[in-house]
Amino acid sequence: MSIRFLSIRAFIPTALLVSAMALTVAPSFSQPQAPGSQTLPAPDTTPGQNPGGMAAPDTAAAPPAKVPDYPDPRSVVFGVYGLYSFTGNGPNILGGKIAADAGVYESLYGLGRPYKLVPEFEVGMPVTRTGMLYFEFDRFRGSTSQTLPQASFIDNYSFLNSDEISSAYHIVTARIYLDDLLYPHKFPVAKLRFRSIWGIRYIGLTDTVDSATRDEAAGAPGVSFQFASNYVLLPEFGAAMEYALAPHVLFRVDGAGFGIPRRADLGEASATISFRKNNLEVLMGAKMLHFKTTPQKDEYETATFVTPFVGVRWHF
């Protein structure tokens, strides 16, 4: 007979014996009542009550109130602006380092006042809890006629003193930047708050210059026509201050720019007051844009535009 079979035969009676002993010696959980004793009522086990019948303190914390980070919800935004040009300086063509070293005068001031209405388009979207990413596009154009006060070599052509000069220009500028909360960094945001600006801007300029008197003297129409182009591509660093005059009214001033000594530079600033109702926002204020291409060439361009504006934003 195998050891396994003997083990099974020994296990069964042993288990029955242990079970019987456990039932015999098991203690009773209902203790007998002594003579003359009084039965006490069972404690009240109602939820939220302690055994003494007194109400237990409510330890459940109230859910926190949902306060938005900003008075108006942030979402994808599309804006259209109309800038009115009423003052500024330039654009000007100036002789650069190479022309100065050669002793050649290559300057022409006032290529033309910009057209009165300058369009601007804007798209923005929230990228972090505190930051908005914006893209802007502007277009400036202008033209003028003037009498050249002195002889000048402009865009590979020699113009003489008292020549009748016609000039025109076309400027496109695009900017992408992050507008992020800087101080105080708390929520909901404070009425007075400061923001940082981190971006990059491209400015492309083309200009044309010609002289009817030079064409007539040469007997060849269009012989004096000159075309040139230049650009600026630089990062921008700046700051903005915002103050909430009311829950839906915001005043903002900002400035940003960058420059390298004796190289290109650019700068901009604006002051804006805006009112928002639901998805529509109306803005008005004034902007300034300045730029200078690098003066290390034969010629470089510089200009400053100051433009009041009105605009609308649609928040999706």
What does this structure look like?
This protein is mainly β and 316 residues long. The protein has one domain: Lipocalin. It has helices at residues 3-25, 97-102, 212-218; strands at residues 77-84, 87-95, 113-114, 117-126, 131-147, 152-154, 157-159, 164-183, 192-211, 226-246, 249-259, 265-277, 280-292, 299-315. The strands form two sheets. It has a ten-stranded antiparallel barrel with strand order 1-4-5-8-9-10-11-12-13-14. Strands 6-7 form a two-stranded antiparallel sheet. The radius of gyration is 41 Å and the shape is elongated. The termini are far apart.
Q: Summary?
A:
With 316 residues, the protein is mainly beta.
SSE order, one letter for each helix or strand = HEEHEEEEEEEHEEEEE
Secondary structure: helix percent: 10-25%
Share of β-strand residues? over 45%
The profile of the biggest β sheet is:
10 strands, antiparallel, barrel
| Strand order within the widest beta sheet | 1-4-5-8-9-10-11-12-13-14
Question: What are the low-pLDDT stretches, counting only 5+ consecutive residues below 50?
Answer: 1-40
Topology:
Elements (H helix, E strand, L loop, with lengths): L2 H23 L51 E8 L2 E9 L1 H6 L10 E2 L2 E10 L4 E17 L4 E3 L2 E3 L4 E20 L8 E20 H7 L7 E21 L2 E11 L5 E13 L2 E13 L6 E17 L1
Antiparallel strand pairs: 1-4, 1-14, 2-14, 3-5, 4-5, 5-8, 6-7, 8-9, 9-10, 10-11, 11-12, 12-13, 13-14
Write a concise keyword list for the protein shown above.
elongated; Lipocalin; 53% strand; two-stranded antiparallel sheet; mainly beta
